[in-house]
Structures are given as C-alpha cells and as structure tokens.
Write a structure and sequence with these properties.
Blueprint (H helix, E strand, L loop, with lengths): L5 H15 L9 H18 L3 E9 L1 H8 L1 H18 L5 E6 L2 E6 L5 H16 L2 E3 L2 E3 L2 E9 L7 H17 L4 E6 L2 E3 L1
Parallel strand pairs: 6-7
Antiparallel strand pairs: 1-3, 1-6, 2-3, 4-5, 7-8
Amino acid sequence: IYSDISAIKKQEDQLRTMAHYDALTGLSNRSLFADRLQQTMAQARRQNDHLAVVYIDLDHFKPVNDAFGHSAGDDLLVEVASRMRSTLREEDTLARLGGDEFAAIIVNVEDRASLENLLKRLLADIAEPVWVADHLVEVSASIGVALYPQTVELDGDQLLRQADQAMYRAKQGGRNGYCLFETTGIEA
C-alpha cells in the first residue's frame, strides 16, 4: 500500500516552525531562545569562552501603534528586526520575546570594547527613521546586557533577568542607550 504523506510532513514542519519562531519577524521566539541560551552557556563553559545576553526594548513604540495602527507597528517591528539581524553576526542569536522586546545572545565576546561597539551599532541602526503607513517614524532602544560566565554559576533565566534589569536601568538613564549588569550591581 502506498500513501503520500507529504501533506502530513508539511503540516508537521509548519507546526514546528510555529512552536519555535515568531510569526511576524521570523526570529526565534522565547522558547527557542531559552533553549539556545542553555546550549550556548554550556558551550561557553566547555570552551572557557564568554558571551553576552542582550535585552532590547524599543523606546516610544506605543505611540506609533496608537497613531498609525497595529499594522504600522508590525511593519516597524519587521524593519527593526531586519536591521538588528543584519548588525549581528551569523553565529549570534536574535529573538523576539514579545511585543517590542527582543533579546540576543552574543557569542565569543573577546573584550568589552568590541561588545560596546556592537551595542552602539545596534542603537544607531534601530534609531534610523523608518517609513510606515506613509509616515517617517523614529524609535530608539534601551538595551541591557548581562555577561557570562560570572563568579557564581547561574542559569539562562537568571542571566536574562539580569539583562532585563540592566535594560530598565538604561530606560531610567534617558533611553536610547545601554547598561551592563555587573555581578556587583549595575553599571552604566
């Protein structure tokens, strides 16, 4: 008996994609990000390497949605996601966590200066004006960063929470900037 299962396989692939990727931007979703973070942390431990978890929240995104509609907001998110993806290296992971929040895993962090240069490029690329709904809009981003490894062992959730805390500190510091979480506290 012969049976064509290509439709079933296609549906399985679609379900797998929906489970791991953001439907709007095509980026990894929170679930896939968490899995990749655990894998990347384990690899960094084995290879005595460093990585950074970057939490990115768009500044003044809600006014775009309110003024021009959710479709315009979606267009803005897609464009910003595309810009961030092109700024990061292929080996880095970029994910949309939800709404206007994104996160990235930056692998092989060699030194603080190169990481800060990357963060500055991300901020500049995000801040470039975008045409949405026949209007030129501008948003910026607040970025928080947590470095790994630290003096105490932590899991991916803790690392992401540290980056989130640092991001809120960047927002409090005036937005359109970044803040690094230090194991002894938060440093601007």
